[in-house]
From TrEMBL:
Residues 7-185 form the Ketoreductase domain. It holds the Pfam family adh_short. The keyword Membrane does not apply. SMART domains: PKS_KR (SM00822). This is Short-subunit dehydrogenase.
């Protein structure tokens, strides 16, 4: 059982969507937060608006440059205990495999995969020394089931789910919990910020994302999964949340559905 109150929690992607909802709920629950995303000013405004603002701090990092982000975080957190790391920052994709520039695949891997590996390497030595800790990554149902227009995103999310499985095996002897979160559709900026074939943002929402669960519901589910030390938690409703189970028992059905659906 992982407690939240008075824990130091490093949260990435805190400026928007699921991360913003997590920041609010974790601060309400009495955590001391290290807030990460790219823009320092935006994070500082968030920090000041949170309950117990003096307990929280800001650490702006660009996870599309994992080596630079890792070095900056190592320096900034050298003397800081981290009880829980929540790797939530991420970027999605809306483009066909046939058209997508190789640089877009690399960018998705940098942020959604290498960014996670880089920050985990900052906290792992601390957690091993502490004899406890919890590493959480917000992956996706797309890390279990592929569908159209997401070949790079799904590739990065499948990779991160596999990496987290290995990490769980290696961290067990150190009393470090490892949790992968697999959200279905959640109504955030994810589709608006999704990369297209040329690397430009899509700039508009998708109907299925608009009809997804709220960021608040998703954040509440993530906190429950952390508290219960779940290895993996699917959070969502409808087909997007059922997809991993359907794929396991009815793979042919899932292949037919994904070939038919436009996104
Ligand atoms: N919304 C969904 O339907 C959905 C479904 C499954 C998984 N997810 C995952 O949930 C996580 C949060 O996404 P969201 O839905 O809140 O989307 P969002 O676009 O609203 O938020 C993404 C967050 O990641 C940060 N980020 C993006 N690129 C970054 C970079 N280079 N460096 C540092 N921070 C960066 C953004 O600043 C923002 O805070 C992502 O990992 C996403 O893949 C979302």
């Amino acid at each position: 059982m992982t407690a939240i109150k008075d824990k130091t929690i490093w949260l990435t992607g805190a400026s928007s969507g699921i991360g913003l909802a997590l920041a609010q709920q974790l601060a309400d629950a009495g955590a001391a937060l290290i807030l990460t995303s790219r823009r320092e000013q935006q994070l500082e405004e968030l920090r000041q608006a949170l309950p117990n603002s003096d307990k929280h701090r800001v650490l702006a990092l660009d996870l599309s440059q994992p080596e630079t982000a890792q070095a900056a975080a190592e320096q900034a957190l050298a003397d800081t205990r981290v009880d829980i790391l929540i790797n939530n920052a991420g970027v999605s994709q809306r483009s066909k495999a046939l058209d997508t520039d190789l640089s877009v695949y690399r960018q998705l891997m940098e942020i959604d995969y290498f960014g996670v590996v880089a920050l985990n390497q900052v906290v792992m030595p601390k957690m091993i020394e502490q004899g406890s800790g919890h590493i959480v990554t917000v992956a996706s149902v797309a890390g279990k089931v592929g569908s159209k227009l997401r070949s790079g995103y799904s590739g990065a999310k499948f990779a991160v789910v596999g990496y987290m499985d290995c990490l769980r095996a290696e961290m067990a002897e150190h009393n470090v919990q490892v949790t992968s979160i697999l959200p279905g559709f959640v109504n955030t900026q994810i589709a608006i910020n999704a990369l297209q074939a040329d690397g430009k943002q899509q700039g508009h929402n998708d109907p299925e994302i608009e009809q997804g669960i709220s960021a608040d519901e998703c954040a509440a589910g993530i906190i429950q999964a952390i508290q219960a030390d779940k290895a993996e938690a699917i959070i969502g409703k409808g087909l997007s949340a059922l997809a991993p189970t359907l794929k396991r028992f009815f793979p042919g059905l899932v292949r037919r559905i994904t070939a038919k659906r436009e996104g």
